[in-house]
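User: Predict structure, ligand flavin-adenine dinucleotide.
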Amino acid sequence: MHVYACVKRVPMTGGQITLTDDQRAISTRHLGFTVSPHEECAVEEAVQIVEREGGSVTVLTLGPAESEEQLRDMMAIGADQAVHLVSDGEEWDPQATAAAIVAAIRSDPQPPDLILFGNESADAGNYQVAVRVAHQLGLPCVTGVKAINISGGRARCEQEVPGGRDVYDAPLPAVVAVKEGINLPRYPSVPGRLRAKRKPLAASQPQRPPARLEMLRLELPPEAGKQVRILGQGPDAAPAVVEILSELGVL
Amino acid sequence: MSVLVLMEGADDELSLQALTFARELAQASGDGAEPSAFTIDGPYAPAAFGQTVADLIGARAPRAVIAPGSERGNEVMAHAAAILDEPLSANTTAFEPGDPPTVTRVRWGGSLLEQALLRARTLLITVAPHAVAAQAPGVMPEAVPASGHALALAPTERVGASSGGVTLEEASVVVSGGRGVGSAEGFAIIEELAGLLHGAVGCSRAVTSAGWRPHTDQVGQTGTKVAPELYIACGISGATQHMAGCKGAKKLLAINADGEASIFAHADYGVVGDLHAVLPGIAAEIRKARGA
Ligand SMILES: Cc1cc2nc3c(=O)[nH]c(=O)nc-3n(C[C@H](O)[C@H](O)[C@H](O)COP(=O)(O)OP(=O)(O)OC[C@H]3O[C@@H](n4cnc5c(N)ncnc54)[C@H](O)[C@@H]3O)c2cc1C
Ligand SMILES: Nc1ncnc2c1ncn2[C@@H]1O[C@H](COP(=O)(O)O)[C@@H](O)[C@H]1O
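Assistant: Predicted complex:
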């Protein structure tokens, strides 16, 4: 099995988001970077499938030069090699992103049996790159997936729906977008991190086509303007809390 | 200007919100003709439903197709957009006409908004849940038969139906614990309080990552979105990705050892203190109030 997992570098925002002066990005001066938990689970799932079925895992990202950090992180938890589509640092819209991913996968001499995505990217949340890649490659696609079982050239995928899970039986090769909860990603070990530094990484620079969904600016949603009422310090606050519970009618 | 609205049912709340959004879009863009609503008839199959939307666009040449920003709404519209090679604005909150028009859409699960130009022949838009209120009058949507698609997969069975009990989505009280709870065993007091209030237990991602609770309990951007009457956040710092899951709560009570924690900026009520001392006190006081 050759499994691809696609990840996107995003800032790890804390308790409050601050924007850059031009309002086109999150101010990241004091922030680290990560990938969506959905995508981390996609990589973990790919690694587990290959541990069972044999084969290799390729982790792919389209992002600025610094995204190599996320590719190395993902190789530290078990991906075998990486493809880095180095971007100009601008926002690529979902169509451009999907097109670049499709071109990279098509140029791989070893076509994948399974291409894993996060269900939605952490920042943009477009809910569509996986579906676009599937249609362009002529592959079946399942999204919102919380369990994958590979057997007999097929992927049995469980999609989370209100009230249960719908089972899709997809012939391989297939595209699957997964959600956090499908597994518990492992922490990278120190030897894992050392090995990741030496794993192969192929970088190229695709051209960004004109955006069809063109981000203009970001803004913070209007504040609820809440003023917290401190009911007390420590256990002495208990009577005041119970008074509020009763006021709210939840007692 | 003709606008089509894809509904999941005549009474579906998010579909009715999409209908309101479509009416506002039609009004803002000119003649204000009433949008036509439709549902897709046939067993759910994402690529086939996407093809149905694409075929309808081919046959009726609408200016826009609006759908709810539900899991299925986003999935079907992504397939339609992929088939037509058109852009899709997912989870949209506002529309401003123009050439091209400008959309506002949510990022980071609602912690941030984005304004973007939508350069499309047919505007494909899903509406963020609860961005607009559903308003009367509703409509009788036309049932359009599902098209076929070579790549269409349909579910073969439904498994794991819910086990009963108060679910996180429906609970009127959610008692959530974060890293401050300290251990899996530490959740006993969270469970006790949730039980006393007939509520559900929630948690932060720090807790699921540590393996103290299953992911089904996680509230947040990549967990469950809850909207209880009261959300009690215990030992949770208030990261934007956690707040994305509980900002629908009517009231929020934060219990945190750190008076400076950002959770207090989102809270209606606060208690500063060690949750392991505060929560047993509250549980005892509830029992006392009930005369037990
Ligand atoms: C893309 C993305 C998606 C994410 N999705 C989610 C999500 O869905 N849900 C989610 O929760 N997080 C999510 N996160 C993670 C999020 O950023 C935070 O890391 C996480 O919410 C922190 O959990 P916490 O508040 O429990 O832990 P911490 O931030 O470590 O906070 C612990 C708090 O407990 C308090 N405390 C400690 N001891 C005590 C005590 N004895 N009594 C009282 N208070 C005490 C501390 O003062 C502190 O405020 C996501 C992150 C990313 C990047
Ligand atoms: N720049 C990118 N590089 C690699 N994968 C991406 C990128 N953007 C999106 N993806 C993948 O597509 C999924 C869905 O993204 P989106 O359609 O933006 O919600 C993400 O979870 C990733 O797996």
